[in-house]
Structure formats: C-alpha cells, structure tokens
Amino acid sequence: MYSAFDMKRIFIPFILVFSVLQLYAQNRQVDSLIDVLKKSKSNKEIIRACLSLSAQRSLRNFDENVNYARTGIAAALKQNDSIGLGVLYHNLGLAYYFKGNFDSAVAYYYSSVNILEKKQALPELASVYNDLGKFYRKNGSFKRAHDFYFRAMEIYRSLKDEAGIATIYNEDGVVYEMEDKLDEAAKNYSASLALRKKMHDQEGIAYSLNFLAGVFTQQKKFADAEQYNMDALKIREAMKDSFSISLSYSDMGDMYMAESKYDKAAESYTASNNYAIAIHYADLISNNYKQLSQAASLKGNYRQAYDYFQQHETLKDSIYRLETSRQVEELSSKYETAKKEEQIQNQQFEITKRNYWIAGISAIALLAVLLGLSFYRRIRMKQQAKLQLEIMKQQEIAAKAVIEAEENERKRIAGDLHDGVGQMMSAAKMNLSAIESRLLFSSEEQKKNFNKVVALIDESCAEVRSVSHNMMPNALLKSGLGSALREFIDKIDANILKINLDTLGLNGRIDSNIETVLYRIIQECVNNVIKHSGGSQLDISIMKDTDGISATIEDNGKGFDISDKSAFSGMGLKNIQSRIDYLKGTVEWDSSAANGTVVAIHVPVK
User: Fold this and answer.
1) H/E element holding 221?
2) H or E stretch including 556?
3) Sign of CA dihedral 342, 347, 353, 354
4) CB atoms within 10 A of CB 526
5) Residue 280 DSSP label
6) Cα(64)–Cα(393) distance, rounded to whole angstroms?
7) Closest listed residue to residue 145, CA positions, set 122, 125, 166, 168
C-alpha cells in the first residue's frame, strides 16, 4: 500500500509531464496557425486562424491580439463574413481595453454589437454585452452596467449556458459590491461558485473564490478572505495563467492593506506587477503602483511613496489623460519637508547659518519643482498629441472599413440583380416567346394581353439592369470617373433636368476609392436636385491638377437657408460630409432662397 506522501511523489511528476506536453501541443497549434497566415490565400482560412490566435492571445499578449484581430478584420471584409467581423471587432476592443485605450475599446465594442445584433449571433453578442458591462462598471455608470449584464444573462439563460450564467453572476456581483450592496454581491458570487463546482470548472471556481474573498475583506472577515484568496491563487498557479495570477496577488494586496499589514501588501502588489508587466496590463500596473505608494506612505517612507506615485501617475495619464492628482503634490510636499527637517537637525550647531541654508535649499527646491513641472507638461503634451493621433488613426480605419463594406455590399447586390434576377427574367421572356408560336389565341384581346406581359418583362429587365448599373456602374470599374458620370447623366431625361458636365485632367485612372466616393457624392447631389430643388438646369465641373481634384455642382433651383442647421440633418448631406471627411477633403455649400445652390468640393490626391 502506498502512503499519501508516496502517492503525491508519483502523481506530481505525472502532472508536470502532462503540463509540459499540453504546453508543447498548444505551441505547435499556434505555430501551425501562424503558418496559415503566412502562406494561405484563402480569406476563410485566414479568418479562422485569426479568430483562434486572437482568442488564445486575448489575455496573454494584447499587442499580438491587436495584430491578429486587424488581419482577420481585413479578411472578413473581403469575405463578407459578418459574424467573423463582429467577433474580431470585439477581440480588438478587448485588447485595447486591457492596454488602457478605453475610447478605442468601447468604439469597437459597439461596432461589434451593431453587427452581431443584426445577425442574431447570440453567444457572441452576450460576450460583448458582458464586456460593455465591465466598461460601464469601471466608468462608474452602474445602472448601465446592470443593464448590459441583464441582457447578457437573458441570452445565456435562453441558451442554457451554465458557464455564461456563472460569469454574469460574478460580473454583476462586482457592481453590487461597488454600490456597497455586499449581501447582494455575496449572493451572486455564491451562485456562480455553485455552478462552477457543478461543471468542475477550475478557472471559474478560482474567479468566484476571488470575488467572495473581496466581500469578506470589506466585511473584515480577514481569515476567510485570506483562505479564499489562497485557494484561488493555487488553482491559477497550477493553470499557469499569468493574467489571473496578477489579479489574485493584487486582490491579496488589497486585503492586507485593509488588515493594515503593509509589508505583506507591498509584497503582493509587487508580485502582481511582475506578472502584469510581462503581459502589458497597463491599468492593473497603474493601480498596483498607486497602492504601493499608499502602503509606503502609511509606513512613513515618503520618498518611496513619491516614487511609486510618480510611476502610477505616468501610467494613469497615458491611460485616462487626467490632470495631475492632488496626492502627487501632497506626497511631494511631505518628501521635501522631511528632507528640510533632516538638514536642519544635522546643522543645529550652526544656528547663524541656518537661515542661509534654508533660503538656498528653498530656492533650489523651487527651481527643481518649476523645472520638473515644465518637463512634466512637455511630456504630457507629447502623450496627448500621440494619443490624439492614434484616435484619429483608429477613426480613419473605422471609417474606411465602413465605406469599403458599403461598396462591397453594393457590388454584391448589383451582381445578384444582374446575374440572378436579370437572367431569370430574360429566361422567362425567352420561354414566353417560345410558347407564343404554339398558342392559339381565341381573340385579338388575348394576344394583346399576352404581348403586354412580354412588354412588362422587357421593361422589368431594363429596370433591373438600370438599378444594378446605378449601384455599381461598369464604366466606373472599366473606364474611370469621367466615363461613369457621363453614362449616369445620359440616363437622366433632359426634359426633367438638363445637365452640363465638364471634365479636365481625368484621362488617367486615379485611386479606386477616390473614384467611387466622388461618384457617389455627385450621384447624391444630382438626386438632391431632382428631388428637392425644383431646378431645370445643373452644371457640373470636375478638374484634376497637382493639388488634387476640385468639383463644383451648381443648380438653378429654389435653394435653401444654409444657416438653418436642420437643413443638414438629412441623410443625404450627412453622407456627403462623411465621405468627404473620409477622403480628408473639404466641402462647402453656398445657397439662399430662390438663388439656387452651389456645392464646392476639393479632395487631395497623392
């Protein structure tokens, strides 16, 4: 018979071997997926690989997650894979959330929600709702956080997804905890723990234990809190999950702070940062430095407290862009005061020189503060400029993705109309023509009715061709902007609107995105004249030179009051403005009642 000690000696090596083999298998899988990205030309394979890689790296390497998500998004747009696009937008938002770029994170979350709600992709949608709840919880918007958790819970219950239900119990419990409703929070955490134990889900059990430990800390049940935290940490260490281990150590630091065990708290926060820094978890690193500063301050070590708080502020500014905290000045003041007192005590025997020393030190300290403040402001301005540039870059990428997706959808619909509906109707006409020769009409009226049906099909075929060509004109794809506009204008009845088109410098091809956007803008302007202006004549002038492309569209219609903001609330003018913004161009309207309208457009071209 083996003793318990002997069994452990046998079992532990087995676990280690199994863990090594499992890690080796995971690494081989990752290498295989990366190899797909390098070699495959199939958008479907690239999307699948990016979804897997992005999910595997979501809580391990946020920068890699961003790269894989972006590669997958490009492939999903080409493939028209809406659900894949929605999931990848969510993964991209999750990466930015943990990197501390909350504006970008919430923008991508909502992009994901808009797609997944339309597709009724319920499991994926519930996951995004959960992360939006986390964002609003962090933002202090508890009501909105509860609302998103409620939506996620409804989906998981409809799907009978116990893992999802357990997750939302925990996440919503944190909101109750922040609202100081500790009984409600503990009730949620306990419900989650029961489900996780039922599923034998070690990772989920660890999270529930961790959350319950937080409640015990607030209730000052420190023995229970420590036991639950240690149990959670053991599970996470066995799983080698750096992300959750960093959370465990940070929570233990909070517990020791509440228990006034500042040395142990500092050890825990430092251990947490060792893991958080490795995975670039900026928000947690910043919070740990803040707590380390507080622990050092409470121990009277103001120099160390000041250093920790400076590290916290540097990270916090890059994440939240807030003004310098009052606590920085307070800690700095304590540090300078302690330094002066030490100097005075060391020089008490030189009473006659004391005032000179104090004056000199004060002047130096003031100069140092001023220089430090000046340096800090310069650094902060650089950080803000860099952040603003990144925001603009992300907005440009998002705008480009939306417009490209819209044009791809137009191409698809135009192709379906032309190749599908158009060909079916042409086939119907051929069949009717074949039947006509075999039919014996009992009267001339029957023959006329038959011919009316054939004529109606002819007219419908022409209408389908017209609609498909308007959505994606062949001339635009083959010959360029000038030819496409002339083809479009030739189809408009001159009795309704006489259009003069002048072009200069459009002989060569330009960027297809610019051609498509300008075509849509001029098409929208012509439609606005026909629908709203009541004009009889329209002059369009387009010129391309070294500065770019300039276009003017002038009608003799009834005009409108450009000072009236409500006139610009319609979708037509909004679409024109958003498309011009996408091309980084300018658009100006000049109009007044009974004097027609002039639209002036300029788009830079490299």
Assistant:
1) none
2) none
3) positive
4) 20
5) T
6) 19
7) 168
| pLDDT tens digits, one per residue of 385-428 | 888 777 767 756 665 665 666 656 666 665 555 555 656 666 66
pTM (global) more than 0.70: no
Give the closest residue to 467 by CA, choosing from 477, 478, 459: 459
What's the residue count for the chain? 606
What is the per-residue pLDDT across 33-44, written as a single tens digit (0 to 9) for each? 777 777 778 888
Residue, of 280 and 109, whose pLDDT is higher: 109
- The pLDDT confidence band at residue 325, using thresholds 50, 70 and 90, is very low
Q: Which of 207, 217, 133 is nearest to 170 (CA)?
A: 207
Which residues 6+ apart lie within 8 Å of 38 measured at CB?
Answer: none
Ramachandran quadrant class, 269 (left: phi over 0; alpha: psi -120 to 50; beta: rest): alpha
Q: Which residue has the tokens 């040395």?
A: 263
Residue 316 and residue 595: Cα distance in Å, rounded?
55
Highest mean pLDDT among 217-231, 340-354, 435-449: 217-231
The residue among 575, 525, 601 whose CA lies nearest residue 406 is 575
576's enclosing H/E stretch is helix 571-582
At residue 136, what is the residue type?
Y
Residues 6 or more apart whose Cβ sits within 8 Å of residue 598: 552, 553, 554, 589, 590, 591
d(CA 393, CA 441): 69
The amino acid occupying position 480 is: G
Tell me how far apart the alpha carbons of residues 235 and 193 are, in angstroms, rounded to a whole number: 14
CB atoms within 10 A of CB 604: 12
How far does CA 71 lie from the centroid of its chain?
14
Taking the C-alpha atoms of residue 258 and residue 256, their distance in angstroms, rounded to an integer, is: 5
Report how far residue 371's alpha carbon sits from residue 353's, in angstroms, rounded to the nearest whole number: 27
Tokens describing residue 433: 């023509």
The answer to whether 399 and 582 have CB atoms below 8 angstroms apart is yes
Higher pLDDT, 174 or 35: 174
Q: Kindly state the average pLDDT of the residues 48-72.
A: 78
Residue 270's pLDDT band, with cuts at 50, 70 and 90, is: very high
Contact status, residue 533 vs residue 597, Cβ threshold 8 Å: yes
Among candidate residues 509, 516, 514, the one with its CA nearest the CA of residue 406:
516
